[in-house]
Design goal:
alpha+beta, 60s Ribosomal Protein L30, Chain: A, Phosphoribosyl-aminoimidazole Synthetase, Chain A, domain 2, 2 domains, seven-stranded mixed sheet, four-stranded mixed sheet, 10 helices, binds magnesium ion
């Protein structure tokens, strides 16, 4: 297959290519999508709009030596949608802006688009605008996502109250375990190009790293059951630092229990291989895109049987501090040494 250099194509044609892939799912709200100076949106009168934006920079937020471009496109939508979902809102539209160096071919950018398109199709999200510029070196993807919700159903980080239950979805530390495996295989491969990476036994954790899913299913389930969380956040930087956000903004403390924190067996085994304790991976590993939320104690019966939600502890008064109770009953202060974007550069 012959590859097409990007400078044969031009920015305008690239944008047109993106526009062709687009389906408008929320036709009632999008009056004008791509094609004019600006998009035109008309939200329902009784809804509020939430807006969030996230930028992904090559070699800081992703490494193309193990991240396929199609997955990168998909994940770039996911990380934004996850923030909309963490407000308890239904994601509806995105704008997509790319800075691309000429070392990429048209076929490579098509792969990236395909991942973006697939995620938008899965979550019924419209691409309503974007921009395309050239970059001197790497690839930069900047996405803005918008969603809608009734004002009274919005969930902020600051509503947690003492005695509320602390809940998480899925299992934690999984995407970080996937990252450790991918980085190890890359190192071995660089040392010996004939080496065939052995990823077969690690599919679950690698999938979580390269193709996470936002928990739209969970906010739908909670809505069905008439449960409105008092506070919510998505877990992008690790449980510990997200708990800090909720407690600081709600002016509370918390107690969580090591034996209640959901960790997959594969993650525990990988933690052993890397001489890290599984609980450290779950507390500080980033990029799981699960939800962390609090609910009033009297709603325990409503959620206790939901698959994929674990109650890991409760909210306390601020002066009681933030603690993890470990498996031998010791209280260990929770530090927010999450995986912020500057630490990732190291
Ligand atoms: Mg977030």
């Amino acid at each position: 297959m012959s590859l097409t250099p990007l400078n044969n194509i031009g920015e305008f044609a690239l944008l047109e290519r993106l526009a062709k892939l687009i389906n408008i799912y929320n036709k009632d709200k999008v009056i004008k999508g791509i094609g004019d100076d600006a998009a035109v949106i008309k939200p329902d009168i009784d809804l509020v709009q939430v807006v969030t934006t996230d930028m992904l920079v090559e070699n800081i937020h992703f490494d193309l030596s193990w991240m396929p471009l199609k997955h990168l496109g998909y994940k770039s939508i996911v990380v934004n949608v996850s923030d909309v979902v963490a407000m308890n809102a239904i994601p509806a539209h995105v704008t997509v802006t790319l800075a691309i160096s000429n070392r990429f071919t048209l076929e490579a950018i098509d792969e990236l688009y395909e991942g973006i398109r697939l995620a938008c199709e899965n979550y019924k999200i419209d691409i309503i605008g974007g921009d395309m510029v050239s970059s001197n070196q790497g690839l930069i993807i900047s996405i803005t996502a918008m969603g809608y919700i009734n004002k009274e159903n919005l969930v902020y980080r600051n509503g947690a109250k003492p005695n509320d239950l602390i809940c998480v979805t899925g299992d934690l530390g999984t995407a970080y375990a996937g990252l450790l495996i991918l980085q190890r295989e890359k190192k071995t491969f660089m040392a010996n190009p004939y080496y065939q990476p052995d990823l077969q036994n690690y599919e679950y954790v690698i999938e979580k790293q390269i193709k996470p899913e936002p928990r739209i299913d969970i906010i739908n389930k909670l809505r069905e059951l008439n449960i409105l969380p008092t506070a919510m956040i998505d877990i992008s930087d690790g449980l510990s630092s997200e708990l800090h956000h909720i407690c600081r903004q709600s002016n509370t403390g918390c107690r969580i229990y090591e034996d209640h924190i959901p960790i997959d067996m594969m993650v525990s085994n990988i933690a052993d291989e890397f001489y890290i304790s599984p609980i450290t991976m779950a507390l500080h590993g980033g990029e799981d895109y699960e939800l962390l939320f609090t609910i009033p104690l009297n709603q325990y019966d409503l959620i206790k049987n939901i698959d994929d939600i674990s109650v890991i502890g409760h909210i306390t008064d601020a002066n009681e501090g933030m603690y993890l109770i470990n498996n031998i009953g010791e209280a260990i202060e929770l530090k927010a040494q999450g995986w912020d974007s500057f630490k990732k550069e190291e």
